[in-house]
């Protein structure tokens, strides 16, 4: 199955997981012939999973656990439309498959729970956005972040074109004005033509456009924006920007947009212009969060001490947990003894204390954010803002 990911889904998957838990991450090439390496890379990771499974869970049904993954090897349709990366989670009862925007570091891990940090970064919506590329008579939707942008197939009921939206109600040829129906404007040399009823071609085209924009906005909001809950950047000519914004009731539509015809823009240019809209908003939100951390730290309501954060999690007091990207601390949280238990590194399959803390925070309805090292407060790899 192909799953979508947010923090709620992630918390549910972690809670429902029954060991052994297999985590597979890999980058996927999009262009030919490089994409032919995707299956080869996948098979190599499967072999690594199998070896680790035999070593760590010798009594498990290895064949049954790996069978759904093995079937993907020869599934040509599955590999035909790669994105940036592939994430697969497999436990005793469930299989989760995610094709994601970002390239993921090759990882094959077998443990009592899934490897969490790559998933947290995937679920982290703070740097993700959608772009609606709009012309008078068609629309395309993209989803991206700082580094990647891919087109999203419009869902059922979302009209891609003017014809899709209006069907038989579309003005004939989208231009019903009659050449014999000139007004005085035509005599003055004005190119505007009117039909016998006094309605110009331009007026009819504008009416069709507005009906299309209205239908598109309603369907896009319902099917995509309210589901993804991502900021929406509008890329369109200024006149289409104004018309669409006047009609739109999409709460996720940003006031800033990309002015100009989106048609000639390739993905890299479109991504760069969209990120120019998003970057100041993202930086401001992160700055505000770190300011809140500093203020609450002075009040004793935030900490970067592992022991303090572990105790706060056991008391369900953590509102926001900040985790350093690519940082691993061997160990686990002993819920019964209320202790953080350090552990010796055991390679890729070692228990990760940061994963444990993140899982507990998600289970309690807290927010978990993965930040680059240079933006983390303190040097412990983790920090938390408390509820009280």
Protein described:
InterPro entries: Bact_RF_family3 (IPR041289). It holds the Pfam family baeRF_family3. The chain has 388 residues and is an alpha+beta fold. It folds into three domains: 1-126, eRF1 domain 1 (Translation, Eukaryotic Peptide Chain Release Factor Subunit 1, Chain A), CATH 3.30.960; 129-167 and 202-281, 2-Layer Sandwich (Nucleotidyltransferase, domain 5); 300-387, Ribosomal protein L30/S12 (60s Ribosomal Protein L30, Chain: A, 2-Layer Sandwich). It contains twelve helices and 15 strands. It has helices spanning 7-16, 37-56, 62-73, 76-80, 117-123, 162-166, 184-187, 201-228, 238-247, 267-298, 306-314, 353-363, and strands at residues 21-27, 85-90, 95-100, 107-111, 129-134, 139-144, 149-152, 232-236, 258-259, 302-303, 318-324, 331-334, 339-342, 367-371, 382-386. Strands 7-6-5-8-9 form a five-stranded mixed beta sheet. The protein has a four-stranded antiparallel beta sheet with strand order 3-2-1-4, with helices on both faces. β5 (129-134) and β6 form a beta hairpin. The longest helix has 32 residues, at 267-298. It is globular, with a radius of gyration of 26 Å. It starts with 6 loop residues before the first helix and ends with a strand. The relative contact order is 0.11. Residues 175-196 have low confidence and may be disordered.
- Silhouette: globular
Mean pLDDT: 87
- First-to-last CA distance: 40 Å
Computed over alpha carbons, the radius of gyration is 26 Å
Query: What percentage of residues falls in helices of 4 or more residues?
Result: 25-40%
Q: Please report the number of helical segments.
A: 12
Oligomer: single chain
What's the total count of β strands?
Answer: 15
Strand order, biggest sheet? 7-6-5-8-9
Tell me the structural class.
Answer: alpha+beta
Task: State the domain count.
Answer: 3
Give the CATH topology of the largest domain. Answer: Translation, Eukaryotic Peptide Chain Release Factor Subunit 1, Chain A
CATH homologous superfamily classification of the largest domain:
eRF1 domain 1
- Uncertain regions spanning at least 5 consecutive residues: 175-196
**CATH class division of the largest domain:** Alpha Beta
**CATH architectural designation of the largest domain:** 2-Layer Sandwich
Give the H and E element order: HEHHHEEEHEEEHHHEHEHEHEEEHEE
Report the major sheet.
5 strands, mixed
Amount of beta strand: 15-25%
């Amino acid at each position: 199955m192909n799953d979508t990911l947010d923090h709620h889904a992630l918390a549910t998957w972690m809670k429902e997981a029954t060991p052994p838990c297999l985590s597979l991450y890999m980058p996927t090439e999009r262009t030919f012939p490089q994409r032919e390496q995707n299956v080869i890379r996948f098979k190599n990771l499967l072999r690594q999973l199998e070896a680790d499974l035999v070593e760590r869970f010798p009594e498990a049904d290895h064949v049954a656990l790996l069978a759904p993954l093995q079937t993907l090897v020869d599934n040509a349709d599955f590999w035909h439309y790669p994105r940036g990366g592939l994430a697969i989670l497999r436990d005793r009862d469930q299989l989760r498959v995610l094709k994601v925007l970002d390239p993921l570091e090759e990882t094959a891990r077998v443990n009592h729970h899934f490897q969490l940090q790559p998933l947290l970064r995937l679920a982290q919506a703070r740097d993700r956005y959608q772009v609606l590329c709009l012309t008078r008579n068609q629309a395309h939707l993209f989803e991206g972040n700082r580094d990647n942008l891919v087109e999203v197939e419009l869902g059922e009921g979302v009209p891609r074109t003017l014809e899709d939206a209006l069907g038989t109600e579309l003005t004939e040829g989208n231009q019903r004005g009659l050449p014999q129906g000139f007004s005085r404007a035509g005599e003055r040399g004005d190119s505007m033509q009117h039909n016998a009823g006094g309605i110009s071609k331009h007026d009819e085209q504008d009416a069709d456009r507005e009906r299309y924009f209205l239908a598109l906005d309603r369907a896009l909001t319902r099917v995509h924006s309210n589901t993804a809950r991502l900021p929406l950047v509008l890329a369109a000519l200024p006149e289409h920007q104004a018309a669409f914004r006047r009609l739109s009731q999409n709460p996720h539509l940003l006031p800033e947009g990309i002015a100009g015809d989106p048609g000639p823009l390739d993905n890299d240019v479109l991504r760069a212009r969209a990120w120019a809209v998003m970057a100041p908003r993202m930086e401001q939100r992160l700055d505000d969060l770190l300011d809140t951390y500093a203020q609450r730290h002075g009040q004793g309501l935030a900490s970067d001490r592992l022991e303090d954060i572990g105790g706060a999690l056991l008391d369900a007091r953590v509102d926001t947990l900040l985790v350093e990207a690519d940082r691993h601390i061997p160990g686990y949280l002993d819920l019964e003894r209320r202790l953080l238990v350090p552990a010796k590194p055991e390679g890729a399959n070692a228990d990760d204390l940061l994963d444990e803390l993140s899982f507990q925070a998600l289970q309690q309805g807290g927010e978990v954010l993965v930040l680059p090292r240079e933006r983390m407060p303190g040097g412990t790899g983790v920090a938390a803002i408390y509820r009280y």
